[in-house]
Amino acid sequence: MDKKEFLEQVKEALQREEDLSESMALSDIEEWDSLAVLSMMSLFDQLFSVNVPIEQINKCSRVSDLMSLAGGMIK
Amino acid sequence: MSRRDRSKEDIILVAGASSGIGRATALMLNREGASVIACARRQEKLEELKDLAQRPDALFIETKDLASDIFGLPQWVHGLSNKYGRLSGLVFSAGIQKIVPLKALTLQQLRDMFEINFFAAMMLSKGFCDKRVNTGKGSSIVLVSSVAAVRGEAGIAAYSASKGALDSAARSIACEAGRDGIRVNSVLPGFLKTEMTEKWKDVYTDGYIAQIEKDTPLGPGSAEDAADLIAFLLSGASSWITGQNIVIDGGASL
């Protein structure tokens, strides 16, 4: 999966109207809340069959940090 | 202006609008002033509905077999909001009822029952709760369950379980969607005289009906009785009610 596609998937999971970029801070994303964290866990499982612990997602501060959790599966 | 009042800007999707409670609800909401998107499998039934509507210009018909693409239902709801405007209400009144004793029940029958009665409701609710689809605070979902969810009866284990699942889901979705101002409730009607009970004369025999009449303090209800409750739960008059499973059965379960 490429970065653009991943950003689209995250945008859809967050039900967000505006586009996302790698450099965006998660705290600046209006839709980023505790349910968004759970949605990300589900998304990683669906897209990459990876179980990402909630603590790892909570440690992320930017969209690019989320990408790094995919373990090299985003090109 | 009463909190029960509606305007054309109230756009409400009614799934399963071609008969019974769904049909009565669609007509009632239309009469009260809302714009109604009436969805069902049968085009001719929806056209009949439009002919009966007091304000046909505010009743839009969408022919859709919900079971044909459950996975795509959230996207379908999104498409409806693009077409008609953001939705303020969702009524899920679609479903199938089959009387099958456990010893005759197959896994496929059980799955078929859950596909439409539960999975479709969940996916429509998912689509509705997308903040790009609904009007936010004040919007409301009503899932039509059944008193069978809380009252056992021989032959309806699959049906009652699928309705019980709806009730449980309503409570949890209410917790999740409440933060966006969306309310979620289910209604559990008891025995209603509808076209289905007329059609199933071999099941709902005169003797059966007489027994229901005897066991129900207020006597059997009509689809309009349930529609009244649904219309209330979709209105501002119920703005502090969410996550509830409300029995409406004329007192039969007392």
Widest β-sheet, arrangement of strands of chain B: 3-2-1-4-5-6-9
Helix % of chain A is 40-55%
- Tell me about the largest β-sheet of chain B: 7 strands, parallel
Range of strand content of chain B:
15-25%
Query: How are helices and strands ordered from N to C of chain B?
Result: EHEHEHEHEHEEHHEHE
First and last CA, distance of chain A: 6 Å
- Mind telling me the CATH class of chain A? Mainly Alpha
Structural class of the helices, strands and pairings of chain A?
A: mainly alpha
Count of runs of 4 or more consecutive helical residues of chain B: 8
Q: What's the assembly state of these chains? A: heterodimer
Strand fraction of chain A? under 5%
**Domain tally of chain A:** 1
Label the structural class of chain B: alpha/beta
> What is Rg of chain B?
17 Å
Chain pair with largest interface: A-B, 5 and 5 residues
Number of strands of chain B: 9
Low-pLDDT ranges of chain B: none
Largest sheet of chain A: none
CATH topology of chain A: Non-ribosomal Peptide Synthetase Peptidyl Carrier Protein, Chain A
- Taking pLDDT < 50 over at least 5 consecutive residues as the criterion, the unreliable ranges of chain A are none
In words, what does this structure look like?
The complex is a heterodimer of chains A (75) and B (254). With 75 residues, chain A is an all-alpha fold. Chain A has helices spanning 3-13, 34-48, 54-59, 63-68. Chain A has a single domain (3-68), classed as ACP-like (Non-ribosomal Peptide Synthetase Peptidyl Carrier Protein, Chain A, Orthogonal Bundle), CATH 1.10.1200.10. In chain A, 51% of the residues lie in helices and 0% in strands. The longest helix of chain A has 15 residues, at 34-48. Chain A is globular, with a radius of gyration of 11 Å. Chain B has helices at 20-32, 43-52, 73-84, 107-129, 157-177, 195-199, 206-215, 223-233; strands at residues 11-15, 35-40, 59-63, 89-92, 140-144, 183-189, 192-193, 221-222, 245-248. Chain B has 8 helices and 9 strands. Helix content of chain B is 41%, strand content 16%. Chain A binds chain B through residues 15, 17, 31, 33, 35, and chain B through 130-132, 176, 179.
